Amino acid sequence: MTTYLDFEKPIADIEGKIEELRRVAAQGEAVSIEDEVSKLEDKAGHLLRDLYTRLTPWQKTQVARHPERPHFLDYVHALIQDFTPLAGDRSFADDKAILGGLGSFRGRSVMVIGHEKGNDTKSRLHHNFGMAMPDGYRKAVRLMTMAERFNLPVITLVDTSGAYPGLSAEERGQGEAIARGTERCLTLGVPLVSVVIGEGMSGGAIAIAVGDRVIMLEHSIFSVISPEGCSSILWKSSAKAQEAAAAMKITAQDLFQLRVIDSIIPEPVGGAHRGRVQAMEDTGDAIDLALAELEGMPADMLRKTRWDKYLAMGRVGLA
Description:
By secondary structure, the protein is an alpha/beta fold. The chain has 14 helices and 8 strands.
């Protein structure tokens, strides 16, 4: 069953009627439903297109968090051949919120790293809802270093509401682990392409997203803090999350205009969850193009260009 968001209620009503008509026809009732179903499908399609061309930042946040949206393992299965997962940080444990490994992407050997949220209650608990412990970031650093040693480009898929904020994570050095991940991204001597496929919240996202090319799906979000977290800090309540989302400029469109990201991947009408195969294929095309642009660049040039890119962000009024 499709999970509908709050603002999709009119579409849910129409698609519910379509399903009801099909159930009636399946029960052998002597009625013709084709014309009525066709009209309702057209109406739902027009309404869906209209809604998704004028989403507010808060509505985009809801779409980015949709439970049926493709996650890391979905992209790996769709885009990476001969994927070999690599586990553990070689210091403490194997974090399940950040996964990674070697594989082949359209003829290139690559290292793929990303957040995995899970797709049902059991897997979400197993992956801690994509909120990584320090072990996850140390694993990411280890895999990036391995990729550099063997001259393999790195692809990171970002989808987290933030690093795990619990006591156990802080005891094991969460802030230091995130900082080390960010540093490793900046000093990497091989191409790094980062794609925000859902949520890219806080340092938990940035630790694996300081890429040569940072790409966002059309309805994904990327920010230093979640709208709820920002609302709680500014207004001492999460009730103003919608206002915070609008003010924070967290959408792909805002961030592209601000030159924080490099490109946007269009999503199927209704979001990536309504056209999973197409969304993942289009993401593959964007990654392929980015890697082609970076291919053959010497390590020193990659590092310098990456440093210059991030140092230039936020500069205002400089000649």
